[in-house]
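A quick aside before the break. I want you to see a complete sequence-to-structure record at least once, exactly as it would be stored in a machine-readable document. Don't worry about memorizing anything.
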Amino acid sequence: MIYSLFKSLAFLTPPEWAHEQTLAVLQRTARPGKPHPFAGPVPEKPVNVMGMSFRNPVGLAAGMDKNGECIDGFGSLGFGFLELGTVTPRPQPGNPKPRLFRLPEHEAIINRMGFNNHGVDTLLANLDKASYTGRIGINIGKNFDTPIEAAAGDYVTCLRAVYTHADYITVNISSPNTTNLRELQKGDAFSGLLKAVLAEKRSLAEETGKNTPIAVKIAPDVDEEQLDFIADTLLRVKMDAVIATNTTLDRAAVQAHPRANEPGGLSGAPVRARSTEVIRGLSRRLEGKVPIIGVGGIFTAADAREKLDAGASLVQVYTGLIYKGPRLVREIVEGL
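That is the input. The structure line, written in tokens, reads:
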């Protein structure tokens, strides 16, 4: 009831402003080490993935807290893990506003944020100040003005910066909001980038004595042939994990909405089925050799179970949290 009222008021304001204010309130009202009063306690449901234990299989997807400004706030909602970012080597403003749009009739969001963030150094400074003790993933990307052929340098720079601070690191090459970024999912660019990142990981592991798993996040807008290629590459380079999926460019499910043709990635309920389909296809091809983190349209425990049954080992929420509120994590974990 309280969140329904809050959402009704928040949805009267611009989406990006509402997002910023919500994070500020959530962070201020968090009690480190204790459940958030708006969420309540979340039961333990441990799961072991990527060689580490998670309190429960429900995580926060990247994009919600790009700069690590609300780590204790989100942590107090009972997530099994938080994925921060996407972060780039240098600060950047992202795409021009407005760039975030609600589609309430479809429980969906369209965004074209463009990796707006304060840079990797700011994220790490915020992480150092946080009290949260759960698992942390850091999602890394390239700056918008770095040529696509030089993208590996940005990913390696971020990898070096965050390597010892993260429990796992995600290589984001599937956002539709940075020009040509999805080209990195194809052919030699894909395998070349992953090989460069994993080579740097081996060097850092030897230097630091810490083995930080690396995941790659893929788009839902791939056909069977592309999925074959992605899975074959993940197996060949021995990737630690894959996250499926990012937002979609497909507007079929929301075509009648006046915002349907806004450029950007669509998230929420309309991407649920396609995300699950990609997870199922990856699971069949990977045969358990590369763990899958499922994300896309999770609003209930049944949605999360669908992803897990399709082959995911962990799940993440983003848009569902906006529409359903701070008790969502508890409801999903209790329902699994």
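Two observations worth writing down. The chain has a mean pLDDT of 97. The longest helix spans residues 187-208. We'll return to this after the break.
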